Amino acid sequence: VIADVHAACQHATVTQELLQAGFHRELLVKVELGEGGEDARGCTVAARIRLPPGIYVDPYELASLQRHNLTKAVLVPAAVDVEAPEYSATELLVLLYMEPNPWCSRCFRAVLPMHGRYHRPAEDSEEASVVLKSPEVLRCCCDNRLSTECWTPAEVEAPCSSKPDGPCQWYSTMRKPVPEELILQVPVGLRQHSSMVCVLTLLATGLCSSLILAAVCKHGHFS
């Protein structure tokens, strides 16, 4: 009987893909629920993503996208220091709501904009590797009960999009293990260039300050 129960609980398949290049990227997440179990209609599917310190999501950008119904997600913590470098930042938890595929009742997808943080200068490499682990698949069915053999309750402090004002219980499902983790390459500076960068920065700062001071003296009105 136990073997039959586990056979009916098909794994959810999760795939991730990085779009664009450089510091400003987009993470495409696709979820396909298993063939067994309950129908996904009337339920909300989300991906719980743990972003390492080398990556962050801009809460202001996310709020703008949510106003235009382009992306819906919840950040934990909600306040994100977008200026912090990688070595002083902390892990970020993102609950990304998935959009259903109209041609596949078990398929969902969503895109999350994210940005690479500045890393410490490296000795001999112009890129730093940031590892993205596979997300956890969550499901919230406010009007339906999920099979306890296939789904386990998950502690998630976020509303179910179908009933944003009512209490909802999220559930976690089994997922197929991915063959390898997704690796994001972030550009970094080289330590041997530190002196040159400092000199150029001081020269640029001095030049700009002189131009501003000259403009104030020429066009300013002093009483």
From TrEMBL:
Membrane topology value: Single-pass membrane protein
Pfam families associated with the record: PIG-X
This protein's name: Phosphatidylinositol-glycan biosynthesis class X protein
Function: Stabilizing subunit of the glycosylphosphatidylinositol-mannosyltransferase I complex which catalyzes the transfer of the first mannose, via an alpha-1,4 bond from a dolichol-phosphate-mannose (Dol-P-Man) to the glucosaminyl acyl phosphatidylinositol (GlcN-(acyl)PI) intermediate to generate alpha-D-Man-(1->4)-alpha-D-GlcN-(1->6)-(1-radyl,2-acyl-sn-glycero-3-phospho)-2-acyl-inositol and participates in the sixth step of the glycosylphosphatidylinositol-anchor biosynthesis. Probably acts by stabilizing the mannosyltransferase PIGM.
Main location: endoplasmic reticulum
Keyword Ribonucleoprotein: no
GO CC terms in record: endoplasmic reticulum membrane
Keyword Nuclease: no
Native species: Cuculus canorus
InterPro entries named in the record: PIG-X/PBN1, PIGX
Compartments where found: Endoplasmic reticulum membrane
Spans through the membrane: 194-217
Keyword terms: Endoplasmic reticulum, Glycoprotein, GPI-anchor biosynthesis, Membrane, Transmembrane, Transmembrane helix
Record-level GO BP terms: GPI anchor biosynthetic process
Pathway assigned in UniProt: Glycolipid biosynthesis; glycosylphosphatidylinositol-anchor biosynthesis
Top-level taxon: Eukaryota
